[in-house]
Amino acid sequence: MKILVCISHVPDTTSKINFTENDTKFDTNGVQFVINPYDEFSLTRAMWFKEKQGANVTVVNVGNASTEPTLRKALAIGADDAIRVNMDATDGLSVAKQLAEVVKNGGYDLVLAGRESIDYNGGMVPGMLAALVDFNFVNGCVGMEIDGTSVTATREIDGGNETLSTALPLVIGGQKGIVEEKDLRIPNMRGIMMARKKPLNVVEPVATESATSIESFEKPAPKGAVKLVDADNVDELISLLHNEAKVI
Amino acid sequence: MSVLVFADSAEGKFKKSAFEVVSYGKKVAEQLGSNLVALTINANNNEELYTYGAEKVIAVSNDSLATFNAKVYASVIKQVAEAQGSSVVILDSSIDTLYAAPILAVGLDAGYASNVVALPSATSPFTVKRKAFSNKGFSNTVISTEKKVIGVAKNSYGVFESPVDGSTETFEATIADSGVTSIKVERVTGKVTIADADIVVSAGRGLKGPENWGMVEELADVLGAATACSKPVSDLGWRPHGEHVGQTGKPVASNLYIAIGISGAIQHLAGINASKVKVVINTDPEAPFFKAADYGIVGDAFEVVPKLIEKLKAFKQA
Ligand SMILES: Cc1cc2nc3c(=O)[nH]c(=O)nc-3n(C[C@H](O)[C@H](O)[C@H](O)COP(=O)(O)OP(=O)(O)OC[C@H]3O[C@@H](n4cnc5c(N)ncnc54)[C@H](O)[C@@H]3O)c2cc1C
Q: Residue B203 is part of a domain; what is its CATH number?
């Protein structure tokens, strides 16, 4: 089985968010970049297939050279090789089109991505990719088993789970549950040493047009200070929620 | 040209988000000087949408659409969009629509903006404001394609009445080959889900153990709220995973979020920032949650919550 794992390179969850150049650019100053947390769950599941059922695992990112440490980290976790499509990732559809090209050229059976990336939170790329290459697709995936080419996958729904039967070739939008958090892997010394020798292939993008572009960023309006209510006076809280906030 | 809104329903009944997207679609149609069409699938009371401005409802009824399937639903929406000559398609942001919308966007060759929180600030170029960086920012996004798909974030716009004399037409959709088949649905029934709830009562490690959740559930009951929790609580197995909210859990966009014994770590706040009014109950006045909250009580949950339940019961009866 040939598995492709899509890796988004995103600011660490605790990053302070600032913008520069008249609020048109994200300020990367002092920001630590990591593998998108949702992708990390999917990558770990790919490692499980590799070890238990046999698979070759390639990781891919659409991005400029600054994303290579993130791909190296994925290699250190155990992926066999990496591909970087040399393009600034600015729009979901154009990223999905680049990935579709990689999928078509690589003959992958299974593509694992994360449900969404935590920077632009678009949640677009996995579904668009599945549609572009005409693979089956399961989003919000919290569990999957593969037997030959048949797949049983579970996705989260409002208030519960749905179990689905489908088949390879398949694209997954994964999240916590596809593996548990305690099973996520931290690269060890040996993995890091080996990652240096693994291939990281840079490919040039195919011609695509963006469907969307970001004109500017904004920060939420500053919040007023919290109104504190005395612990002995919950009546006041109820009255504030009823009369002032009008939520009960 | 028209604006098409997909008004989602469950068991024949419109979701609240359906009224929100129709209200939103009405305004977008006005901005574009175009008319509004609402698409419904297996819904019972199509006339309800006239109240929110849908002059034309396209009703699809088909047993093979009884359970949601992303590819099939995307294909049905596409067929209606094409039949109606719709240049803009508007959806809500439920787990299901987030699954179908990207497939629809590719099918229509349309640019897609998800998590949209306001009406377009301009229609030429077509510009919408979206949530980004897990609610720590917004991006003003231009959709440059001729056709556009918009996902409206829950509770971000609101529900507004603008009654019209509407009419409903039926539509026979061709059902696509799905490739993915539902074999089992497991849902906690009889409980308000986090996605639907207007009020969410959430508790963290400050509650010390699963045996203390009785009061959290009772508070939620009194308020008609859904229950939720912080990540360590679900990791410890005190509560089901489906209740974990935050960066790596579920997002919450309720009108009221009550956080009991939750510190307010940045990853937790990332999931609840979109909630309108936040109340925190915590023993530690330095807990970061107080900086994010609108109302707060510095106090012991084990004393405050039972009092709150008692007083709320009296308030509800009055
Ligand atoms: C990559 C990553 C992703 C993460 N994603 C999430 C996520 O999605 N969601 C999430 O929640 N967390 C997430 N976390 C974890 C997060 O950083 C915090 O550890 C977590 O939110 C803390 O949960 P807590 O507030 O319940 O527990 P604690 O940090 O233990 O805080 C408990 C709080 O309860 C208060 N307290 C104690 N006793 C009482 C009492 N009797 N009455 C009232 N208050 C009391 C304390 O003062 C304290 O503020 C993530 C972390 C990482 C690194």
A: 3.40.50.1220
Domains of chain A: 2-220 (3.40.50.620)
Residues of A in contact with B143 (CB under 8 A): 211-212
CA atoms within 13 A of residue B73's CA, in its CB half-sphere: 23
Is B114 domain-assigned? yes
Q: Which domain holds residue B12?
A: 2-170
Within a domain: residue B190? no
From first to last of its 318 residues, what are the pLDDT tens digits of chain B?
899 999 999 999 999 999 999 999 999 999 999 999 999 999 999 999 999 999 999 999 999 999 999 999 999 999 999 999 999 999 999 999 999 999 999 999 999 999 999 999 999 999 999 999 988 899 999 999 999 999 999 999 999 999 999 999 999 999 989 999 999 999 887 788 898 899 999 999 999 999 999 999 999 999 999 999 999 999 999 999 889 999 888 889 999 999 999 999 999 999 999 899 999 999 999 999 999 999 999 999 999 999 999 999 999 998
Cα–Cα distance for residue pair A213/A225, rounded to 1 Å: 35
Q: Among B135, B263, B272, B304, which is best to mutate for testing ligand 1, by the most ligand atoms less than 8 A from CB?
A: B263
Question: Which of A160, A216, A227 lies closest to B242 in CB terms?
Answer: A160
Is residue A81 within 8 angstroms of chain B, CB to CB? no
B96 contacts on A by Cβ (under 8 Å): 157-158
Instruction: Tell me, yes or no, whether B80 and B166 share the same domain.
Output: yes
Assess whether the C-beta atom of B265 lies below 6 angstroms from ligand 1.
Answer: yes
Q: Which of B134, B135, B194, B205 for a ligand 1 pocket mutation test, highest count of atoms within 8 Å of Cβ? A: B205
